[in-house]
Amino acid sequence: MSDDSFIREVNEELRQDQAKALWRRYGPIAIVIAVAVVLATAGYVGWDYWDRSRANKAGDAYSQALTLAGQGKNDEALAALEELEAGGYGAYPVLARMRAATLQAAKGEADAAITAFDEVAADTSVAQAIRDMARLRAGLLLVDHGSYDEVSARVETLAADTNPLRHSAREALGLSAWKESRSAEALELFQEIADDPQSPANLRQRATLMSELIRGSGDAS
Q1: What is the mean pLDDT of residues 150-157?
Q2: Which of 113, 146, 179 is the last residue of a domain?
C-alpha cells in the first residue's frame, strides 16, 4: 500500500468518526427541528385554508345580501346582513352594519339608520376610515332629518383641510346651514368646495350652483 492510499484511508476513517460524533451530538436536535418545520408548515397551510374558507363564505353571504337589496327585497337583505353581522368573518360584519344602515335609510327609517351609523362611528374596534364614513353618512341623513348642530357634531372634524372626506363634509354643513337660513355660512362652505382643485367634479359643480343660488337670492350679505 502506498503512503497516499494509507493517508486517504486514515482521513476517511477520521471523517466517518467525526460524522458519527456529530450525529450522536446533534442528530436528535436536527430531527426535532425538522419535525417542527413540517408541523409549522402544515399548521400554516391548514390555518390559511381555514381563513380563506371563512372569508369566502362571508363574502358570498355579503354578495347575496347585496343581490337581495338590488332586487328591492330590503327585509330579506336586512335579515341576511344581520346574520352576517352576528356570525361573519373579517371586515364583513362591519360592512354588513354599514349596508344595513343604508337599507334602513332607503326604507325611510332615518332615525334607525342614523343610530346605526352613530354606533359604527363610536366603535373603536372598527377601522378609523370606516368610522369616519359612518359619521359622514349620519351627517348627510341629518341634513334632512336634524339640525345644523346635529350635522356639525358628526362632520365638523371631517371638514378639515387635510381630511379626504372634507368635500362631502362641507357639502353636508353647507346644505344644513342653507336650510336654516344661515346663508353666509353656507356660501362660505360651498365656495371652499368650489375653490378646492381636489374636489370631485360633480361635487364642485353642485357647490358652484349653490353659491350662485345663494348670491342670486341676496341672502348672503
Answers
A1: 96
A2: 146
